[in-house]
Structures are given as C-alpha cells and as structure tokens.
Amino acid sequence: QPFSSQQSFVKLIKEYPRLVVMRTLSKVGLAALRSGFIVAQKDIIDEVNKARLPFNVNSLSQAVAMQALGNRRKFQDFVNAVVEERHLLFDSLDRLEGVQPFPTDANFILFRVNNAEKVYKMLLARGVLVRNVSDAVKGCLRVTVGRPEENRIFVNELSKILKRV
C-alpha cells in the first residue's frame, strides 16, 4: 500500500503460509492498465497460475507495469509527491466552511458537504471531476488527488460553489 502509513501485510506471508496479498496498479497512476498482482507463497501462486487464462493481461500492460514497479526510486518519488499533495489538499478542504474531509491513506479524499448532489453537478458543469458516493456514504463526494494545479482549481471551484448553495 504505497500511500499508506500502515505496514504492509506482505511481510507476514512467511508467517502465514495461506495469506494472499492483492495489489492494484490503479492507485499509482496506472489505472488504464487494469492490472494488479498478488504476493503469496509459491505453492499458492502455482495454483492460481493453473486457473488463470493464459493471456489474461496483454504484453504491453505487462511491460509498462514491470517498468513502473522495477524503477523503485522513481515510483517512490511519485508516491511521495502524491502523499504530500494529499496532505495539502486535505488541509485546504478542512479550511473550507461546510466541508468535512475524512482522514485517508489512499490517493483520494472522501469529504462530506451539504447538498452533495447539487455540489457534484455544479462541479461537473465546471469541468471538475469528482465521484458522487452519497448513495453509499450520505452527503459525501470523493476527489482523487491530482497535480497541484488541478487540486487548486478543484478547491477554488468548490469554494465558489459552497458560497452559492
């Protein structure tokens, strides 16, 4: 879990031989690859390999994923930048009246606002993409941590909208 301050369960695989840790590359900027991987004891991986389709991931996705995971320094630099930007974005949201951001270790922030549906539609109309999760979490929207300029635009637009609703 690259964005989390929590320890990974991967270290427990030797202690718990039936443990399987699944990871997605979606949360590290590679969502378009629709790729992920598992970490487990060799006997479990052998069984998974027997059941999976022979070409379940295209070779281009595999190559890109291997390149991204193989360059640990560059990968860690990316993760550190996202974590720093997440803190800045969280603080900006926390300062807005009528916004309640929830602590997170992910690359997105869940936040509660009054009139979530209306705020969502107004953000969308201004070209700001957030996810409306208010059906699952009452009054909440979810924003992915973007580049600094994207986050500034989001906070500015949200601030303007909140003054109108």
List keywords for this structure.
about 160 residues, alpha+beta, Aspartate Aminotransferase, domain 1, 2 domains, four-stranded antiparallel sheet
How do the strands and helices of this protein lay out in sequence?
Elements: E1 21-24, E2 36-39, H1 42-51, H2 59-70, H3 72-95, E3 99-101, E4 108-113, H4 116-125, E5 131-132, E6 140-144, H5 148-164
Antiparallel strand pairs: 1-2, 3-4, 4-6, 5-6
Helix pairs in contact: 3-5
Describe it for me?
By secondary structure, this protein is α+β, with helices and mostly antiparallel strands. It folds into two domains: 9-70, no CATH class; 82-164, Aspartate Aminotransferase, domain 1. It has five helices and six strands. It has helices at residues 42-51, 59-70, 72-95, 116-125, 148-164; strands at 21-24, 36-39, 99-101, 108-113, 131-132, 140-144. A four-stranded antiparallel sheet has the order 3-4-6-5, with helices on one face. The two termini are 37 Å apart. The model has no long low-confidence stretch (mean pLDDT 89).
